[in-house]
């Protein structure tokens, strides 16, 4: 009866299945990562330092213009857009949440649709902003552009498909995992032996430790509402129950979203002749993550904090949560179910988003601040920031493996 | 395929020759698939022939679960002789049978009954303090089951928990709370939306004042909060003759998918009592869950199952996702000769008027007519319309289950009109007296899914007979009013009205007729959406109980060993006891494995087998009884813990955790943290504490 079904949606997941699924995705990623797309001359691929740095955070591999050059970022962007539509912007999308499987199907379709649009826009941006020099086109310009755009979009769709499959097996694990694999591959690709000095390793070690500790702190801290449930039970009539809203709920999406936007603004403005050199200098001071300045750090911090709060507001739909609490028979002490609960949660979600976003932004800018005092290679600064994404995935993965292992070993009444 | 069926035997006993499609159905079922076979195509024969082949091939007991006892008994009687010739003994389990009768029937080869009957017998067996369970987990694991109307069992009723409960005392405040809640007014004191009922500020203030408390939801007032919650639900959400009926001074729940009474089931957590108070009946004790199982988890305990239904195909994705079973559609023996129509209306009034028109039209042509309602309330409502028109009709609902066979046997007669709840919607064969006058089915309102609507249609057009089916739906049907978000519904209604230009025109609704495609599409879209959300709920419930099932199976296997030991000690004759033990020892070996180490643990001298029985009977019996109590208490407390967890586990996703993983973790941790309770010190009869 226990057939091994890799990627089978909602199958009863075993540890073995999880490992095989993750390894398969990793293998596919490595293949695609090293597969240079058709239509470009491999030898002449333009490698832009600024863009490579962005890739270190988003896991893509555009420096070699491989099939997975855009990574899984367009899919993440699409997911955020759909969440946004689901919360307030679209009544139609919002109603899908009530439709169970059918709603999920509609939502997935829309997410994939938006992913395609975002991928086409990004790959067109890659070509048109000159990141890919027209000198490397094998065919005439138009054909090469079409070829590049369709292949890059295909690459994103392949990764999105597997990310969704893994997400279905384990909440949110797939996207984070693919992102992590991309980041690690990029580092392996970029890091050179001369960067590995004792001092660098020591600084990075301490930084890494602080960053990971802060992530763990963020994931394990929460705001707690005390209440009880309607389930009539004389013995446990006044048994307290808790509704916990974790600061880690803000996630790392803000980081994934804000970093490329800042880099693209910087890159775009600096490559468009229309802007004066003063404008370009001004933009660089605010958005150039490769030249670390206090003003960039402040913009980075504020953007992440702001976006984290927005993301929290989007994903934590208080009306939906208040209804769910009622249906599950839970009420918060001194707060009536329904509107009153909704209002209370609404107030706290801002606060929780602010605290979570603040911690996340702090984790992200920490390496930049350290770098103001102790100089280290830029790669290490970004590596510490990437650790936020990698660390988060590893913590989730570790939890899943731990529980599955525990489940497999557990025998009752042995 | 031909060796599966002995046609001569069937012809001899039943006077019919099986159709080719029936042979194909048996073949597919033996391949462990689910089949879709239309009503009137001979599903009963297919079931028994599959059971016969499974029994012979696998040498395992086969259960056939039908939707109700009436069908189980009918089929059992129909096939007894045929099976006798094949040396197969057919059994029948009915809820009202004595323990002894049931025990005899459980021993037979192929057993007709309902899923809930066996599930409850299994659950009762796990709470016995002495005696032999009628059916144990190992019996179930070693049996196969054929599910007739599989979608009704696994989908419509799949995640309803079957609960064995024990009584605890009820707070006397419930009367005062009920009186208070009855005085509340909708919109002023409370609001209802989609099965949620919320108190308004004014409502809260009124309750606080009358209950002389500062705040209903403050700590320390939990009892009031829960009583108010139940009273609100009982008074304003649960309706008499819809969710329940009052029969001989007691509340009987009504199965919403079949319209039948649920004899041995009641609401738990004080809700049943809140309804009793509402109806002014004698109050039963509050039921506290002692043990429970959902039907979908129960069916999964069997070695394997197959199933058949006229409406399995629409749910094939769910069957595959949850149970890894394919749904195969079996062609009709004769082409369908039935006209299927769905009409949509804005207002119930127009729908009923059109229904009366249809009834008059077909009644004048002497066609038998079956009118299906979703609830008894709706049935009573429509009665008055029929009476007003002086139309003669018969009724069938949960209060007339005893007369069911007779009423159904007359429903196919020329010119007959039967007004029935969905009791007649599934599993009933209406035989026509005149094949030229096909049965006309009129569904008076939308059910929760198109699949259930189709079940009602299926009563007509058996075996290529002429048939007509009309399902009439309106936005004022209970389904739309109660199960659909009212804001969304109002938005849709507004858009439809707007598309017809004049929203202020009172006669507008007459113009928005059943010919309006958008209207019909929207009505059906809500049904599809709701079915989909139910499907997800079923999947979640199934997932959540998986680890619990593992724990249950281990605990109850151990429990059964102790129960067996108690039964041995209760045997009066010493030598019988020895024989029994020796026999058990050679097969089950439980005495040495379980009993002796426990005696050691409890500091009782271990003696050779014979001596242990003759000298330490009282001690050993007592130990086993204590062990049973320990397991029962552990399980009861676990269920309380789990009931709370299952309510809050989905909230975990708001803390970034994976609810599925965390629930598994919680079950394991609960076991580990409380494992000691299974080994804890217990007081013996002579007062000492034993480890």
Give keywords:
heterodimer; A: 414 residues; mainly alpha; three-stranded antiparallel beta sheet; 14 helices; 3 strands; 67% helix; disordered N terminus; B: 691 residues; alpha/beta; 50% helix; 16% strand; globular; disordered C terminus
Overall geometry of chain A comes to globular
Distance between the termini of chain A: 24 Å
Quaternary status of these chains? heterodimer
Proportion of strand residues of chain B = 15-25%
- Low-confidence spans of chain A: pLDDT under 50, at least 5 residues? 1-6
Largest interface: A-B, 69 and 74 residues
Helix tally of chain A equals 14
How would you briefly describe this protein structure?
With 414 residues, chain A is mostly helical. Helix content of chain A is 67%, strand content 4%.
Describe this structure in words.
The complex is a heterodimer of chains A (414) and B (691). In chain A, 67% of the residues lie in helices and 4% in strands. Chain A has helices spanning 15-33, 49-58, 73-89, 91-95, 101-128, 141-169, 173-190, 198-220, 253-271, 277-287, 294-315, 318-327, 339-373, 378-409, and strands at 222-229, 241-246, 330-332. Chain A has a three-stranded antiparallel beta sheet. The radius of gyration of chain A is 23 Å and the shape is globular. Chain B is of the alpha/beta class and 691 residues long. In chain B, strands 3-4-2-5-13-1-14 form a seven-stranded parallel beta sheet, sandwiched between helices. A six-stranded parallel beta sheet of chain B has the order 15-20-19-16-18-17, sandwiched between helices. In chain B, strands 9-10-11 form a three-stranded antiparallel beta sheet, covered by helices on one side. Chain B is built from 28 helices and 22 strands. Chain B is globular and about 70 Å long. In chain B, helix 23 (546-569) packs antiparallel against helix 27 (617-648). Chains A and B meet through helix 5, strand 1, strand 2, helix 12 and strand 3 of A and strand 8, helix 11, helix 14, helix 22 and helix 23 of B.
